[in-house]
Design goal:
This protein is α+β, with helices and mostly antiparallel strands. The chain contains five helices and 23 strands.
C-alpha cells in the first residue's frame, strides 16, 4: 500500500511539473503594427503640399566685387521701388572710371595727331584706322566703367519686403554674390507644389483649389495658374502653381496644403496603404501580410506603384488590417499581436 501511494504521489508530481513547464516553453506571438485599409476615393480631389511664395521674388547682387560700406535694411523691412538698399566702397569704381576716361583722352589725342599727319601724307591709312579702332575700344571701356559705377549701389526694383539678408556691412563680396532677397508685395501669393506624373495630366489651368495653412482655421480659395512643362530629374514630379485669391495675412515661406478639384479619375481608384506594408512588388502585383483572427496571412494584391510614403493597391476589402512595422519578422500562418509603435520598439529592443 505504501509503495502504491508513493508511486501515485510521484506520478502526480511529474504531471504537475509537466504542466508548469508548458507555459514557459510556449513562444509568444510576434509583436507587429498594423493599419486598416481605407476605402479608395473617387480621385476627384488631388492633394499637394509646398511653400508659399510671391510670384516675383528677386535675389539682388552687385555686378562687381568690392567692400560693402552701407547695408541699410534687414530681414522683414518694407522697401520702396528705387530705394537704395546697399552700396560698395566708391573708391575702387571711381578709380576705374577715371582710368577709362584718361584712356579715351589719350586715344583722341593720338587720332587727332595722326589725322593731321595723314592729311600731309606722312602716315598710312592703316595707321589712321588703327587709331580710330583704339579710340572706339577706349570709349567702350569707359562705358563699361560707368555702367559698373551705377551698379555699385543696390536699388529696390519694386515695392516689397526683405525676405533674407545674406551679407553684412564691411564684408567683401564677389560679382554676382547674393546680398538681399526681395519679395514684390504687389505680386500674388502662390503655392508651388510637386505632383506625380500620373496626376498632373488631370490638372488644368483655371481649376479651383482650397488651400490650408497649419495653425490657421480658415480655408483660402485659389486657382491653378500654371502647370510645369518639365518633370524633376530625381523624383519625376511636376510642379504646379496655385494662385491664392483675395488678401490674406500670410507670409512667404509658410507651408501649405492645397486640394485641387480635378473631377473623377478615369480609371478605377486604388486604396492607399503605408509603403512599408509591401513585402514584394513585381510589375503590377505585390504581396502584403493581413491579420486574420490574430494570424498573419500572405495575400496578393494589385499594385499601382508608390505615391510619396504610400503604396497604391487594390484587392483588399475595406477595413482589412495590413501589417506594417514588424512584417519582416513574421511568416505566413504565424500568430501575431498588434501593439502600438512604442511597445513595438520595446519588443524589438528586447529581441
Amino acid at each position: 500500500m505504501r509503495a502504491g501511494v508513493a508511486a501515485a504521489a510521484s506520478l502526480a508530481a511529474a504531471t504537475a511539473c509537466s504542466k508548469a513547464e508548458k507555459p514557459a516553453d510556449a513562444v509568444a506571438p510576434a509583436s507587429v503594427e498594423a493599419v486598416a485599409v481605407r476605402g479608395p476615393s473617387d480621385g476627384s480631389v488631388l492633394t499637394a503640399t509646398g511653400p508659399l511664395e510671391r510670384r516675383r521674388e528677386m535675389t539682388l547682387s552687385f555686378r562687381i566685387g568690392g567692400v560693402i560700406t552701407a547695408l541699410n535694411v534687414d530681414d522683414g523691412d518694407v522697401v520702396r521701388a528705387g530705394q537704395v538698399l546697399a552700396s560698395l566702397d566708391p573708391a575702387g569704381v571711381a578709380a576705374a572710371q577715371t582710368q577709362a576716361d584718361v584712356e579715351v583722352e589719350r586715344a583722341q589725342r593720338d587720332l587727332a595727331r595722326d589725322q593731321a599727319l595723314f592729311d600731309k601724307g606722312f602716315v598710312s591709312s592703316q595707321r589712321l584706322d588703327d587709331r580710330k579702332s583704339a579710340l572706339r575700344a577706349a570709349q567702350a571701356r569707359a562705358g563699361s566703367a560707368a555702367f559698373d559705377r551705377r551698379w555699385a549701389r543696390l536699388v529696390s526694383p519694386a515695392d516689397g519686403v526683405v525676405l533674407q539678408r545674406t551679407a553684412q556691412s564691411g564684408e567683401v563680396v564677389q560679382p554676382g554674390q547674393a546680398v538681399l532677397r526681395i519679395a514684390d508685395e504687389t505680386s500674388p501669393l502662390t503655392l508651388r507644389a510637386p505632383l506625380a506624373d500620373r496626376d498632373v495630366n488631370r490638372v488644368r489651368v483655371g481649376q479651383s483649389a482650397s488651400v490650408r495653412i497649419d495653425g490657421l482655421p480658415a480655408v483660402v480659395p485659389g486657382r491653378v495658374s500654371r502647370v510645369g512643362e518639365r518633370a524633376g530629374p530625381q523624383t519625376g514630379a511636376v510642379d504646379v502653381e496655385i494662385e491664392l485669391l483675395g488678401a490674406h495675412p500670410l507670409r512667404s515661406g509658410q507651408m501649405a496644403t492645397a486640394e485641387i478639384s480635378v473631377g473623377a479619375a478615369p480609371t478605377t481608384p486604388m486604396a492607399r496603404v503605408p509603403a512599408e506594408a509591401i513585402l514584394e512588388a513585381d510589375g503590377k502585383q505585390a504581396f502584403v501580410l493581413v491579420i486574420d483572427k490574430d494570424v498573419a496571412r500572405r495575400r496578393a494584391v494589385a499594385f499601382g506603384g508608390f505615391d510619396g510614403d504610400d503604396a497604391l493597391v487594390s484587392g483588399l476589402p475595406t477595413g482589412t488590417r495590413v501589417i506594417t512595422a514588424g512584417a519582416g519578422f513574421v511568416g505566413d500562418g504565424e500568430k501575431v499581436q498588434v501593439v502600438d509603435p512604442s511597445q513595438l520598439n520595446l519588443a524589438a529592443a528586447g529581441r
